[in-house]
Amino acid sequence: MRNTILRTSLLMLLALVSLAATAAAQQRVTSVEGITEYRLTNGLRVLLFPDQSKPTVTVNITYLVGSAQEGYGETGMAHLLEHLQFKGSTGHTNIYQELTARGARANATTWLERTNYFETLPATDDNVRWALGLEADRMVNSFIAQKDLDSEMTVVRNEFERGENDPSSVLEERVLSTAFLWHNYGHSTIGARSDIEHVPIDRLHAFYRRYYQPDNAVLLVAGKFDEPKTLAAVQEFFGAVPAPARQLPRIYTQEPTQDGERSVTLRRTGDIAEVMAGYHVPAGSHPDAAPLDLLLRVLADSPSGRLYAALVDAKKAVRIGATQYQLRDPGYWLVAADTRKDQSLDEAKAIMLDVLDSIGARPVTAAEVDRARAAMLKNIDLTLNDSGRVGLQMSEWIAQGDWRLYFLHRDRLRAATPADVNRVAQLYLKPSNRTIGAYIPTEKPERSEIPSSPSIDSLVKDYKGDAVVAAGEAFDPSPANIESRAKRMTLVNGFQVALLPKKTRGGSVVVSATFRFGDEKSLFGRETDASFAGAMLMRGSTTHTRQQIREELDRLKARGNAGGSATQAVLQIETVRENLPATLRLMAEILREPAFPPAEFDSLKQARLAQVEESRSEPTAIASNEFARHMNPYPKGDVRYRSTIDEELADLKAATVDKARQFYQDFYGASNAQLAIVGDFDEAAVMAVVRERFAGWKSPKPYARVPNVYHAVPSINRAFETPDKTNAVFLAGVNLNVRDDDPDYPALSIANFMFGGGFLNSRLAMRLRQKDGLSYGTSSQLQISSLDKSGAFIANAIYAPQNAAKLEAAFTEELARVLKDGFTGEELETARAGWLQGRAVARSQDQQLASRMANDLFLERTLKWDADLERKVAALTVDQINTAVRKHVSLDALTIVKAGDFAKK
Q1: CATH no. for 717-900
Q2: Which of 380, 400, 583, 873 could form a disulfide with 558 if both were Cys (CB 3.0 to 4.6 A apart)?
C-alpha cells in the first residue's frame, strides 16, 4: 500500500514538473477577442484560437517571406519553395498521401510578404499532433531536391502560363511594375518565366535556410482543440527546433515619391477592354488605410458606387473592379473598368478620371461612408463567427506586422469620418501619384508624400479589442447525431422544412432553400427568360431598391442571395440568431415581390453580353461548352440544351425585361420547395415567418421534374484553336448508365477518388503533376444522378499547348493501367480513410449541410442514406472496385476535347 502511494505521488510530481517546464518554455504575450499569443524561446510566435463549436481544427503557419524578399534572379523563388515543401521532409516522405488519408483540406499560398501552409482536419488530438509535427518537420527538414525541382518547375511554369491567359491579371501586374520602380512590390509573386526555369537548387537551399526558421514564423491553431495539450505539443515539436544563428536581412528599399503620371499599355488577343487607375498609399498599419478602404467602396461598390453609377449605369462600361494592397510598407490602391467592343475605352477612362478627380468638388457624404462602413463591418463580424476563416485570414495581417492589426483596422473603420475619407482622397488621389494609360506633362507637379510605416509595437501595445465572441457547442457531425436532432415538417401548400438547431460561435445560422417549377414542355424555349428572371431577384423588390437591399442585409449582419435557373430558384442566407427572422422576411420579399426595374435589367444584359463575348477566346469556356454539347445532346429549345456561343449571344440580345417578368409570373411559387435551417435560431419565431411568407405562396403551374437522360454518345477526340493563349485545357470523359442507388455506385465513388481526387495524391496528380510536371491542376469527377440512371466520369487538366501530345498520352496510359491492373489494396486503405473523413468535414460546414438537408427533403431521404453509403464504402474490397470500373469505363468510349494555341507550337 505504501509503495503504491509513493508511486502515485511520484507520477503526480513528474506531471507537475512537466507542466511547469512547458509553461516556462513559452511566454504568454497577449490575448485579444479569444486569440492568445505565446512566444517560444526560439522566437516562434504561437496563436491559439479555440472554438469548441467547430468540429474541425485548422493549423496555419505563416512565414514572413514572399516575393518582396527575393533578390535579382530569384523572382518566384518563394512560390517555388511553396510547391517543393509538399515534396516531402525527413519525417514525412509522402505528404500528399498523409493529407489525403486524414481527409484534410490543405493548401499553401504565397504573396508579397508571406507564405502560409495550412491544414483543416477533423478535430482529434491525433490530427492536431500530426499537423504540428508535419509543419515543424518541413520547417527545417524539407528535401528541396533537384529531382523535385526538375518536375515541379514545369508545373509552376504551367501555373504561370495560366495567369498569362487572363489579360486583366496581366494588366494589373504591368500597372504595379510601372508604379513601383524600385520596391519589390512591383514584382509578381509567380515570378519571371526565366527565373522559374533557371533558378539553381543551391540558391533555393540558401533561401529556404534563411527564411524558413522559427523566428520568422507565426503558428496559428484554430478550431476545436485542447489548449494545454496543444500548447505542450507545440513545445514538443517546435521547441526542439533551435533558434537560428543568422540575422534576417531587412528590406530597406523605399519607393520614392512619384513625380508625375505614368502610363502602361498592354496589347493581347481578347474581347473585353479595360482601364485601370492606381495610386501609392501608406502601409496597411497607417491610420489612413481605413478611410482609404472606405473610399474604395464608396467609389467602386455595385450598385451604389460613384464609378458604377457613372460607368455601368450610364452604359459606358460593363464591370467595375477595385482593390487596396494593404502591406507592411507603403502599398497601392487600384480601380478598374471593363468595356465591350461597342463602348469607347477612351470615354470610360475620361469618365473614371473625372470621378476620381472631382471628389474635392463633390465630397464624399456621410450616407456614403455609413453605407460602406456597414457592409465592411458586417463582413468582419461574420468572419469572426468562423474560427476557420479567422485562422487563415490572420496571415495577411501577420504579414503587415502583427495579427492585432485586424482588430485595430476594424476599430479604425468604425471611427473614420466623412472628413477623414475626403482628406485621404485629396491627399493621395492626385494625378502626379497616378499610373494609368497616358503621359501628361505638368508644369508644376503636385506630389503625395507617403508617410513612413508607424511603429507596430506602439500601436498594438496593451490592445484589448472587443469582448470574446460567445462560443458554441461541441457538435458531432455524424449522420446519427444529425438525425437525432433534425426536425422535418410539411406546410399546407407542400412546402417542406428541415430544422437542425445547435449552438454556434457568435450565434451564426444558415438557410438553404430550393423552389422547383415547370416541366419539360412548359419550359421549352424559355431558358434565357428563366435565367434573367432569377438574376433579377436581387436587383430590387416592390419596396426595396437593389441598393436598399444591400444596406438592409448589411444592417442585419447578413449575407443573402436569391437566384434562379430554368427549373428552379435557390435561396441562401447566413446571419446570426437574433436577425434571422428579419433576414428571412426580407429574402422572402425579394422572392415574392421582385420589381424587375428596366435599368437594372439593361445593366445585367450588358454584363452578360460582355461575359459571353469574352468567352469566345477562352480555352476553358470553349472546351467545356463543346464537351457538354457532345456528351448531352438535346434539341435546341430544351432546357437541357447547351447553346453555342453565337446562339447564346443571339438569345441574350433578344431578351427583354417583359419576358423575364412573364416567366416569373408563370412559374414562381412555393408548392414544390424545400428549405433547411442549420445553426442557432428561435424555432417559433422563424417558423412564424416561414408560414407567413411561404405557406400561402402557390405555384401557378404544375411541376414535373425534367429528367436527366443517359446518352450513349460516340467517342470523339477534338481540338479547338485559341490563338495567343499560353495555357490549354483538356477534358475527357464517358457517360454512365448509373444512378446513386446502383450497387456499383460506392465502388465508383472511391475509384474516382483514387484516380483523380484527394490532395494531389491521386493517380492523375502523381503522374501529370508530380512525375511528369505537365499540369498545375488535374482532377476527375463522378457526376451521378439520385433520380435518373444518368451520369458521367470526367477528368480535366491544364497544360502548355506544346505538351498536348505528352499530356494526352500520359492520361490514357494511367486510365489504361487502372483498367488493366486495377487499384491496389494499399491505395484503397489510404483513400478510404481520406474519403470518409472528408465527408465528415463536409458535414461540419453548416452551409453545405443545410443544402444537403434541403435536397434530401426533395429526394425523400435522411442522413441515414449517407451513413449507409459510408458503411458500404467501408466494406468494399479492391476486387469489387476494379470490377465496377471495368464494367462502366472503357477507353473505346472515351471522349476527349481540348482547347489551346496548338498551332503556335
Answers
A1: 3.30.830.10
A2: 583
Which residue in 686, 633, 601 sits closest to 895, CA to CA? Answer: 633
- Answer yes or no: same fold for 27-165+178-238 and 479-694: yes
Amino acid at 153: M
190 in Cβ contact with 79 (< 8 Å): yes
Please check whether residue 833 is in contact with residue 753, taking contact to mean a CB–CB distance below 8 angstroms. no
The answer to whether domain 479-694 has CATH 3.30.830.10 is yes
Question: Which of 41-50, 341-350, 355-364 is the least confident region?
Answer: 341-350
Q: Residue 455: which pLDDT band, with cuts at 50, 70 and 90?
A: confident
Contacting residues for 734 by C-beta, under 8 A, at least 6 apart: 792, 793, 888, 889, 890, 893, 894, 895
**Mean residue pLDDT across the chain:** 94
The strand ranges marked E within 773-854 are 778-784, 791-799
> Domain 27-165+178-238 carries which CATH code?
3.30.830.10
Distance CA 577, CA 686 (A): 10
- The fourth-level CATH superfamily of domain 262-447 is Metalloenzyme, LuxS/M16 peptidase-like (3.30.830.10)
Give the domain ranges of the chain.
27-165+178-238, 262-447, 479-694, 717-900
Taking the C-alpha atoms of residue 65 and residue 79, their distance in angstroms, rounded to an integer, is 10
**Number of neighbours of residue 757 by Cβ within 10 angstroms:** 24
C-alpha cell read off for 849: 449541410
At 413, which helix (H) or strand (E)? helix 405-415
Please give the full DSSP string across 169-202, using - where no structure is assigned: HHHHHHHHHHH-SSSGGGS-TT--HHHHHH--HH
List pLDDT tens digits, range 192-235.
999 999 999 999 999 999 999 999 999 999 999 999 999 999 99
Closest CA to 217 of 162, 149, 141, 139: 139
Query: Per-residue pLDDT averaged across 503-525, rounded?
Result: 97
pTM: 0.90
pLDDT in tens, 809-865: 999 999 999 999 999 999 999 999 999 999 999 999 999 999 999 999 999 999 999
